[in-house]
Amino acid sequence: MVQQTLQQQPDVKLLGDIKEWEEIDAAIAETDVLVLGVDDVYSPPEDCFRFLSSYPNLKILLLTTTGNEAIAYWRALHCHQTQVTSSQSLIESIRHIYSLSP
């Protein structure tokens, strides 16, 4: 279903159905969004972190093999300026940073 759906999109270039991690390494340089079928989207394969480290603009969409759940992972750098003028403002800053979306 996924491959068929992607092939119908004129602005999507499908690199193929890759079965081995070594094949992904070879194709990933040409990829903006890597779609991987996995059993559990909440436990990404270790190679995903390596890909995100090596390709900072890459986005990875993990899709359950049943196709009913997906999570996107990407790497981003966030910067938020804050003023720390007291111990209270330090605590408020920490809580605010904690509440920010990754």
How would you describe this protein?
It is a single chain. The chain has 102 residues and is an alpha+beta fold. It is 34% helix and 17% strand. The protein contains four helices and three strands, in the order H-H-E-H-E-E-H. The protein has helices spanning 2-7, 21-27, 46-54, 87-99, and strands at residues 33-38, 59-64, 70-74. Strands 1-2-3 form a three-stranded mixed sheet, with no helix packed on it. Helix 3 (46-54) links the parallel strand 1 (33-38) and strand 2 (59-64). It is elongated. The model has no long low-confidence stretch (mean pLDDT 80).
Could you give the order of strands across the largest sheet? 1-2-3
Q: Rg from C-alpha positions?
A: 18 Å
Structural class: alpha+beta
| Mean model confidence by pLDDT | 80
Reading the helices and strands in chain order gives HHEHEEH
Termini separation (Å)? 30 Å
Any chance you could write out the topology, listing elements then pairs?
Layout lengths: L1 H6 L13 H7 L5 E6 L7 H9 L4 E6 L5 E5 L12 H13 L3
Parallel strand pairs: 1-2
Antiparallel strand pairs: 2-3
Keywords summarizing the entry:
single chain, 102 residues, alpha+beta, 3-stranded mixed beta sheet
Quick rundown:
This protein has about 100 residues and is an alpha+beta fold. It is about 35% helix and about 15% strand.
